[in-house]
Amino acid sequence: MKKNDQSQMDSMERKVLIELLYQLADDDFILAYRGSEWLGLAPHIEEDVAFSSINQDMMGHAAMFYQLLEDLGEGHVDILAHGRSSKDRKNAVLLELVNGPGHYLEKPKFDWAFTVVRHYFYTQFKKIRMESLKNSSYQPLADVAVKVNMEIYYHLLHWKTWFMQLIDANDEARNRMETAVQQVFDEFADVLSYGPNGREIAEAGFIDKEEIITQMWKHQLLTVFESVNLSIPIKIKTKSGKGREGFHTDDLAVALSILSEVYHIDPAANW
Amino acid sequence: MNKNLVLHALHEVKDPEIDAISIVDLGMVEAIRGDDSKLVVELLPTFMGCPALDIIRKNVEEKLDRLKVFNHIEVRFINDPPWTSDRVSDLGREQLKSFGIAPPPKKINETGGWEVGCPYCDSLYTTMENLFGPTACRSILYCKSCKNPFEAMKPLSTMM
Lengths: 271, 160
Description:
The complex is a heterodimer of chains A (271) and B (160). Chain A is 62% helix and 0% strand. Chain A is mostly helical. Chain A has one domain: Up-down Bundle (Ferritin), CATH 1.20.1260.10. In chain A, helix 2 runs antiparallel to helix 5 and helix 4 crosses helix 9. Chain A is globular. Chain B folds into 2 domains: 3-77, GMP Synthetase, Chain A, domain 3; 100-153, no CATH class. In chain B, 19% of the residues lie in helices and 27% in strands. In chain B, strands 6-9-8-7 form a 4-stranded mixed sheet. Chain B is elongated, with a radius of gyration of 17 Å. Chain A: It is an enzyme of class 1 (oxidoreductase).
């Protein structure tokens, strides 16, 4: 049965819906931030324009998911985005990791291969997740998913193009891409995870089961891997933390302190 | 409630980033409801991260307030139905062209490709320079016939 608001849910359903929404919101929020750190540093000007647009879209998606949380009584969107500490965040650890050594203001030695692979694999996952959410039993979430799904069509096209071109390029590009694929696989189990209440989230019909989404994601990638002769040990792990349970790296804490610096100067300010 | 009066006022609210076209012709106005004591206008966001949305909301409120007919005005963005690029009106398509922006392609072929005519010379001899443009809803193209760079509004459909 479709649910239009929380009055149609029991307390457990409401609780796990909120948990799922935090995962959705925090994932897009932190990766949009990591993407925005590339501004002015991307490989060429067209990429700078494209990547900025993608980051803006993703931040918009995060804002919509935070709005759904606000509608469920979790507090104001600005506080949800800026005011929560690292341990309260539910994003996957892979998405919070730095783009590479250095800082965007000083000696950035960011890794484009890692960025391409992380964004491509995540966007492919997000596409499958949105297709599933379109049938969510929580109607407001299903409506947002329809909208997000249309926009990420372009993101997926973009990252897949980069991925195919770099992995099919010369030895150095190929090597760096293979290293990045390994690096992303080492963290991706956390992205695929729904956290401690994963079973309840799926049972309430908010989204398909974790195993189904994982299977579809693997299937999509393996087809692409075959076409570029890529055989990587498909062991998907969680190396650096469990984001869905609030266990994060220091990278997240540093990122949060930078992105919310202005907000914390005057949290009551009107934007 | 005089719906035409409201619609007329909404025609005066332009897209802040493309001031040749109104939000009505962009297909953003989904519903006008209520009565003289309370008016509700429901709008559809084009792209969700569009920074112009808050400006549009403010401009709509101001325009309707100036009519001095409604005691209370509520402008809200809704997600159902989703905005799709086929909601742009025929007049809107012409207005976009006059601004140098090709209207969104009506058809997308099986491979996902789309054909865009140059807004200046109508030639189809055009190339895509960047799928992503200066705003979320636009792409950058180049016309090989009249040698002009131009922008096009991205097609957005639920089939994607």
